[in-house]
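[Solved] Which block belongs to which protein?

Original post:
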Amino acid sequence: MTSVTPSIERISLSASAAQTALLALRDPEKARFFNRFFKAGPGQYGEGDRFLGLTVPAVRTLAKQFAALPLGECRKLLQSPYNESRLLALLILVTQTKMAHVSTRRKIYDLYLANRSRVNNWNLVDSSAPSIVGNYLIDKDRSVLRELAKSTVLWDRRIAVLATFAFIRNNDFGDTLALCELLLGDSEDLMHKACGWMLREVGKRDAGVLEDFLRRHQQQMPRTMLRYALERCTPEVRGAAMSGTF
């Protein structure tokens, strides 16, 4: 009877193998720093998040090694309590969606939205939402973004705004402006930063569009959002907008 030797490649491309690779690189000192940096303490925005202490370049290196990880295994990896494990899963999905056929891109998009409760810190959102959500929606109905922007969940709202980065890169600014207007009264500083960042990106491509938004909303914009939006503007525009006289 012929014995069958399991494929080494198949064994290695699993969530458990990826998790083992991550654990081998853990750094307790960096983990303690990340716990503070990503506000994982009681009552903070990242409450309950856990860290292994891996740098982003280290996680990106592993993402290349596990680039062909099946979607089901990525889903498993997303359930990890460790931020770096979820980041690894998301970076793999970002790589896969860039090369995938439209049907697979839809599967990745659906997986992402169905598991977005695991995309629950700003580094996870920012590294994934533009590529997985934004790029998928470029030529499709985008009403889901408005629904996410109205969510009580901070990370849903940040996903919505960051997804529009993909549109901005195509000089398509309408959704960014509409969401930023919708979120003017948001109570979270992380949303003020996200909106301000995307507005700044709009202004880098079309200063007139940003300046028109500022004229209409400068007095209602949270100060953090305003400062972020103005970073690439002229000193004259910055001064006038910050004083509410632009």
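(Second protein starts here: sequence line, then its structure tokens.)
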Amino acid sequence: MSVIKIKDLTKVYNGSQVPVHAVNGISLEIKQGEFAAVVGPSGSGKTTFLNMLGGLDDPTSGSIEIDNQLLSNLTSSQRIKFRLENIGFIFQAYNLIPVLTAKENVEFIMELQKVSKAERNKRSLELLEAVGIPDKANVRPNQLSGGQQQRVAVARALASKPKFILADEPTANLDSKSTETLLDIMERLNKEENITFIFSTHDARVVNKAHRIITIEDGLIKSDESRI
């Protein structure tokens, strides 16, 4: 079953001199449970593409359909609710809230979902255990290493029980050991919980783990390779 259907997607930025075609007519489908990497050089359109998938940016033309829901048909408030219920985000810069502990960061999205305090407590501790840092629950981000902060970010992305997770260069600031550990965790969660992962990356370590590799150049799909 296709989770995401993308048709003739374009994004044009009207600069001061000439329009920039960041995404130039992409069509593809992504099925439930995929572990896919969108790859390409800097400026190829990867991040723009991912932002449109997550409803963080509007396409110039074309359509994105997620579980039979066209994103373009949603109002701003409906889109926020849709993201909250369906999409988990992992960013290169972690984007943790500095005044909150690791556990509180994981719980934050569940608070927005109106999850009970008891359930938030239970699930946040389970997720920190799942990503291998149960002992860091009461530690704030500035006391964590980069790898530990990114593990908190993964736990936070999973907290909302999303159908799929968008990860934009999630390993860019991590050393090799942290990267391997994080990728193993995400691959295990992909298999065990059937969560769809879509990475934007030019990290060979991520590409080597991916089950599908979608290569974008100049805003177009150059190749689409499945390894399963």
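Accepted answer:
You had them paired correctly. Confirming on the second one: The mean pLDDT is 91.
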